[in-house]
Amino acid sequence: MRSNGRLRDRLGALERAVDALLSCDLTTVPDGELGTSLARLESHTRTLVGLTARLAHERDHRNRRVAAPPGNTPTRDAAETRAAAPNRTSHSPHPNRSGIVADDRSTVARGVTVTAPVRVERTGDVVVWTIDNPEQRNPISDEATIEALENAVRAADRDHSLRVAILTGAGTAFSAGGNVKHMRDKAGMFGGAPADLRQGYRRGIQRIPRALYHCEIPTIAAVNGPAIGAGCDLALMCDMRIAATTATFAESFVRLGLIPGDGGAWLLPRAVGMARASQLAFTGAAIDAATALDWGMVNEVVEPDRLLDAAHRLAAEIAANPPHALRMTKRLLREGQQQSLETLLELSAAMQALTHHTADHDEAVAAMLERRTPRFTGQ
């Protein structure tokens, strides 16, 4: 009870502080000081929004489990109805559970505009995810960004009309990885005792590699600038990488006295081999785009103004193929990294039996024999 009282007191103090801030005349504050303060406020706001949304989601989930009759589970229609319920603070009819809308630029609450951490833009059967926090070089360690990116990936995975996804960063950086200021302040996922930190990683940033690993559609990282620490690992979580000449890659955790906490020790050796992965992880040194290309970390290097065009060209070449075959091929490539040959052959035989009975397979054979361009429908 005493703990609950302290929490109520702190929430009350927070509400009073927000009310006081909203009543301030910010025009009297020097521009430099205002910019720094607003950037810090925006970062903390994103973390708070994501945290409260996650707690609310977990509470609702617990309540539904308690309320559900024994032996019964909510129907799919009921779950979809709840997921489609409108969010009053959002401009978009399709909010995610973080309260921040992936395909909208911002949300507004009490007159304060909060920039959405991930923009989602669709062109035909290709979707582009843009981490949109250029002022802080697109860190991915705050709850709101984790939530928005995870939701964007899972939404794309469920949408069988999508065939390829492109991931990039706004501004001059791809992603700076973890927020170093939050590390200094022991804030967000970097706060608490060791046991809390462990759970913070497992329930926080590690949701991103899990979501991208299990995403069935092919993914392309369009690396527009520095990809540092977890930002480097984020690029490696995608199936393919196209880098601008301005891109750099650094598995720099050791320089902060840390280890790759988001799966980098699994991802990096698979991209460049154990010897080069060891060099990058043990030194924390950065490599440029040309070296990354030479080491096999990226598929292509282009000028910055051609980056998204190159990513879309590759996406279009991939998307021209039957979507079911694409998803199954990606699954086989994933399984091939850890299964024996015999196990993979069995899985391949089962999947091949399925593809032989798709309309797209029949269309592909007919188009080849008739020497025309196939028209795939995903059937």
Structure description:
- The structure is a single chain.
- The chain has 379 residues and is of the alpha/beta class.
- The protein contains 15 helices and 11 strands.
- Strands 3-4-5-6-8-11 form a 6-stranded mixed β-sheet, sandwiched between helices.
- Strand 3 and strand 4 form a beta hairpin.
- It starts with a helix and ends in a 9-residue tail after the last helix.
- About 13% of the residues have low confidence.
Arrangement of strands in the largest sheet? 3-4-5-6-8-11
Q: What's the total count of β strands?
A: 11
What is the CA-CA span between the terminal residues? 58 Å
Estimated radius of gyration? 23 Å
Poorly predicted ranges: 68-115
Structural class estimated from helices and strands: alpha/beta
Task: Provide the helix percentage.
Answer: 40-55%
Given the C-alpha coordinates, what overall shape results? Answer: globular
Give the SSE string: HHHEEEEHEHHHEEHEEHHEHEHHHH
- Count of helical regions: 15
Overall mean pLDDT stands at 80
Largest sheet: 6 strands, mixed
Our estimate of the beta-strand percent is 5-15%
Question: What are the SSEs and their pairings?
Answer:
Blueprint: H1 2-22, H2 31-67, H3 76-83, E1 106-109, E2 112-115, E3 118-123, E4 126-131, H4 143-158, E5 164-169, H5 180-185, H6 194-203, H7 207-214, E6 219-223, E7 226-228, H8 230-237, E8 240-244, E9 248-250, H9 264-272, H10 274-283, E10 286-288, H11 289-294, E11 300-302, H12 307-319, H13 323-336, H14 341-355, H15 359-370
Helix pairs in contact: 2-4, 4-7, 8-9, 9-10, 13-14
